[in-house]
TrEMBL record:
A Pfam family reported for this protein in Swiss-Prot or TrEMBL: TetR_N
Acetylation keyword on record: no
Superkingdom field: Bacteria
Organism expressing this protein natively: Anaerostipes hominis
The organism's taxonomic lineage, starting at the top: Bacteria, Bacillati, Bacillota, Clostridia, Lachnospirales
Annotated signal sequence range: none
Domain HTH tetR-type, first and last residues per copy: 14-74
Annotated protein name in UniProt: TetR/AcrR family transcriptional regulator
UniProt keywords, alphabetically: DNA-binding, Transcription, Transcription regulation
Gene3D superfamilies in alphabetical order: Tetracycline Repressor, domain 2
Amino acid sequence: MNNSFIRSGGWNMNDRIKSITDAATYLFLQQGYSKTQISHIAKAVGVSVGTIYLDFAGKKEIMHFVLKCTIDPAFINQNFERPITDDLFVGLENDIIAVFEKTGSDFAKHLVNKAVDYDLETLVSDAFDILAQYAVGCLFIEKNQFDFKFLAEHYRAYRKKFLETMTQYLTAFVESGKVRPLEQLELTTTLIIEILSWWAMDIRYTSFETQDIPPELAKKICIDNIISAYKS
């Protein structure tokens, strides 16, 4: 297991919450939500099953906590009544969908003026940041789509919109001479997104051998190689 997921020793309550949710995140992404048991999470953290239940009412609450922190990283800094119950996460799925919609709209804003004030390097940087920021939530839905069909349906629509937006940007860049001519524009766009996704998301959480590469370094590698390959 990637050691960056686990903290140990001298915990206060929120340290333990962090350790539980980090371990659960790893397991939910590596082996799936349905196959992960509370006992697996307890073993990964190095505590008893009973200790987990002091902090969370059950596995569903841990999962909802992980997803909530994806869209609101500061959430974990609150003081929580133990055990954490699902009352804390009413409306969470709709909140996640709202984040999808807002992120998609914000990402497309430069298309209003045909991206004249935008360039390939900034596009790659912005796309990487979005993927890295929501990596856990996106990967969770991808890896558990049959267990969470409502979220998966909306996530597919978000992914489609993301691809369309990236394609429109690259089209504008080709037309303005910022990017070299591309024969298979949509497939090239898909390739770029897959490169960014792997470096922003998979390498940290779901690749065969996960690596704790700092996001800024991963982004620099992506920018250097994509710019070299496609800039006019």
